[in-house]
Structures are given as structure tokens and as C-alpha cells.
Specification:
This protein has 71 residues and is mostly helical. It contains 3 helices and no strands. The longest helix is centred in the middle third of the chain and has 20 residues, at 34-53.
Amino acid sequence: PWVNLSEVEIIMKYRSLLVGLYNYYSIAKDSFKLKSIRYILIFSCAHTLAAKFKCSLKQIFGQYGKFLSLN
């Protein structure tokens, strides 16, 4: 389970999954449809972090920002 990983590892795994999908579908004519997948992956990552820290999505997005950055 990804919940057992560190917060940095969780975010990096989701980010690498998203980058891999963008690279694979970048030559497709309808690659703009990946925005919905990006949304799903960001919220999935936020849910994973919220489960790890036993807090709400609002707190996760408040701490990490809209796109879950590691700054």
C-alpha cells in the first residue's frame, strides 16, 4: 500500500505516473483529454496523503497547494 510510504515518495509516485501517461499519449490528437486523468490522480494522491495523516482533503490541499507541490 502506498499509504505506508513517506509523503515525498507518495507524491513522486503519482507524479511519475502522470508524467508517464503524458509521455505515452503526447503524440495523440486528443491528448487534451488527459486533464481529467490529471484531476483524478491529484485527488487520488490527496486522498492517500489524507489517509496517511488522518486528516481532511482541505488540510492536504492547504498544506501542499492545488497541485500538491513539495515546496
